From TrEMBL:
Glyoxylate binds at Y25, R165, H276, R279. Pfam families: FMN_dh (PF01070). Belongs to the FMN-dependent alpha-hydroxy acid dehydrogenase family. Its cofactor is FMN. The active site is at H276 (proton acceptor). This is L-lactate dehydrogenase, putative. It comes from Salipiger bermudensis (strain DSM 26914 / JCM 13377 / KCTC 12554 / HTCC2601).
Length: 388
């Protein structure tokens, strides 16, 4: 196995191994990709305060997320079509998360179904749900998650309509991939990916085909998707979803303090400060810049997590020091998955953990629970000093 010392190493292998259509699907933001880029680059504006001659033995990154024990404050974010990045990708990712001791969140738009993941893992996972119009489908999704022993539901609130990603349109993104001369020519250079894909039956949207009314075959899926996402979503509707699920609830996709307050009012247990990895509103603030005002507004009322842009343990450390209880990673683990399946996701987690643990020590802290803003140097005006 090649030496994997940073997430970027996994990304290079991933790019070689996976068809361009799916690499581009992952490695894109919406429109100009400003928010996608700034999600990561804004972390570089925050500095870590080095301390010396402080006993750094006996370090621990273990903590709790929504009351659940985790080996470090990291969760695997819901990522649609993961099973196209690697055959049975959701099962591989969930297994790696389970072995590492961090939560795995399955997307509504996954290839492996809730039941597939439950049958092939033993740790409870989290289930992400999109806010769709179809009440029956929504109730069934929550019921299926309950039956699969999911330990939290995650409602994603930032996708009432889809931000445009140019490459997906140009590549004709679909699952399974449409066979055009261009896509076939590209897939012929991805032999290992293709051989593994041929060995699995899981090549369609497992949570939807056969479960949503009128979607019994994959060709009817695109019509269903276009018609199902609810542009009329409001907080009352989210309250209805809260009633459909009696377990821990996380609301994902908050970037504004006012929305964070609304999420507290619907009885969520946690929120995820997120702009969907820069895939929705291009021109929105990066998550790390949005975090401080949200902490000020709701930090004492609800558990606050953050995602979007995290590529290293140092990024995790900065977000935690600014008050996030946990960080979710999307692309950072998908690179590992596409590169080498479960092993690659484990490598991504190992790399991030090592960076987090070592950097925490070099900041003079030995327990992740004691990490606070004192370890950071944040430039004045980092979170914005905006015109009203
Ligand atoms: C390829 C891809 C697919 C995604 N699909 C979903 C999804 O189905 N549901 C969801 O709530 N978020 C989805 N997201 C957003 C992630 O959950 C997460 O917010 C984002 O990836 C975090 O940014 P990062 O990739 O920079 O870590 C997706 C992200 C990517 C990159």
């Amino acid at each position: 196995m090649p030496h994997i010392t940073e997430i970027e190493d996994l990304k290079r292998i991933y790019r070689r191994r996976v068809p361009k259509m799916f690499y581009d699907y992952c490695e894109s933001g919406s429109w100009s990709e400003q928010t996608f880029r700034e999600n990561s680059s804004d972390f570089d504006d925050i500095y870590l305060r080095q301390r010396v001659a402080i006993d750094m033995t006996g370090r621990s990154t273990a903590t709790k997320l929504i009351g659940q024990d985790v080996a470090m404050p990291v969760a695997l974010a819901p990522v649609g079509l993961t099973g196209m990045q690697h055959a049975d990708g959701e099962i591989h990712a969930a297994r790696a998360a389970e072995k590492f001791g961090v939560p795995y969140c399955l997307s509504t738009m996954s290839i492996c179904s809730i039941e597939d993941v439950a049958e092939n893992t033993s740790a409870p996972f989290w289930m992400q749900v999109y806010t769709l119009k179809d009440d029956d489908f929504m109730q069934r999704l929550f019921d299926r998650a309950k039956a699969a022993n999911c330990s939290a539901a995650v409602i994603t609130v930032d996708l009432q309509l889809l931000g445009q990603r140019h490459k997906d349109i140009k590549n004709g993104l679909s699952a399974p991939p449409k066979l055009t001369p261009k896509s076939v020519a590209n897939m012929m250079t991805k032999v290992q990916w293709g051989l593994e894909m041929l060995q699995t039956k899981r090549r369609f949207f497992g949570n939807i085909v056969g479960h949503a009314k009128g979607v019994d075959d994959p060709s009817s899926l695109s019509t269903w998707t276009a018609e199902s996402f609810d542009q009329a979503l409001n907080w009352d509707r989210i309250r209805e979803f809260r009633k459909m699920w009696d377990g821990p609830l996380i609301i994902k996709g908050i970037i504004d303090p006012r929305d964070a307050l609304e999420a507290c009012n619907v009885g969520a247990d946690a929120i995820v400060v997120s702009n969907h990895g820069g895939r929705q509103l291009d021109g929105a603030l990066s998550s790390i810049r949005a975090l401080a005002p949200i902490m000020d507004a709701v930090g004492d009322k609800i558990e606050v997590h953050l995602d979007s842009g995290i590529r290293s343990g140092q990024d995790v450390l900065k977000a935690v020091a600014m008050g996030a209880k946990g960080c979710w990673i999307g692309r950072a683990y998908v690179y590992g998955l596409g590169a080498m399946g479960e092993k690659g996701v484990s490598e991504a987690l190992r790399v991030i953990h090592k960076e987090l643990d070592s950097s925490m020590g070099l900041c003079g802290r030995t327990d992740i629970g004691e990490v606070d803003r004192d370890i950071l140097m944040i430039p004045k005006g980092f979170s914005g000093d905006w015109e009203a």
